[in-house]
Amino acid sequence: MHTAVLVLRDFKHAIALDPNFAPAYGGVASCLGWRRANKWPGDIAEDNIELLRVATRLKAMGADDAQALSVVGFNLFWFQLDYNGGAELIERAVRANPNYARAYNFRGLLCAWNGGSDEAIADFELAMMMSPRDPFNYNALLGIALAHHNAGRHTDAAVWTDRALRAFPPFFLVGMGQAILCYVGADRMDDARRLMTECVRQAPGWRRSTVVPTPWVRSPQLRTEFMEAFIKAGLPD
């Protein structure tokens, strides 16, 4: 049994023991998010139902746990279930604990994926200043790269992508896809093609006819740029 399945089971058991233990709801959302990000086996429809159930329960509880609020809010957005509801939960997380770095990280990602630039960078920089040793800071590095890409600062985007790649795990398909976009924008095609080869190795079903790049991205222009970059980097027919 996959480790993520075991951990998810434990978080659900914690909720059964104490339905008001907010951190366990955040744990469930984290497991669902990692499963989706890395295309691990799972029932997408059931995961969506589970995440909505978790979000509804957190709202009903009036929870003020910043970790749970922010990760559930982020995944509501990323799973394309409720953009506004997800953004609202992240804002609640920031208000509940203005010192919780990851809430700013998530807020920055929502902004960057909507085509934002400097506002997103401000959130990412604040997150890294607050928690410089956070092992998930590669998300902030990737976010800064994307924000520079959105502003047309492609050389800067590639430099931040280099930093992110040195920090994040090799199975992080979402991150590699974003790195491809930034490398193509900077005309670093060898790097982009190398990453595309690795993506196809990890996800053999990736084809132009099957890939829907970054469907959670709200900016139509950015979605188009992702697909164009994937094709330039060698996404198979």
TrEMBL record:
InterPro entries recorded: TPR-like_helical_dom_sf, TPR_rpt, Ycf3
SMART domains, per the entry: TPR
The keyword Repeat is assigned to this record: yes
Swiss-Prot/TrEMBL keywords: Repeat, TPR repeat
Keyword Repeat: yes
PANTHER family the UniProt entry points to: TETRATRICOPEPTIDE REPEAT PROTEIN 6, UDP-N-ACETYLGLUCOSAMINE--PEPTIDE N-ACETYLGLUCOSAMINYLTRANSFERASE SPINDLY-RELATED
Protein name: Tetratricopeptide (TPR) repeat protein
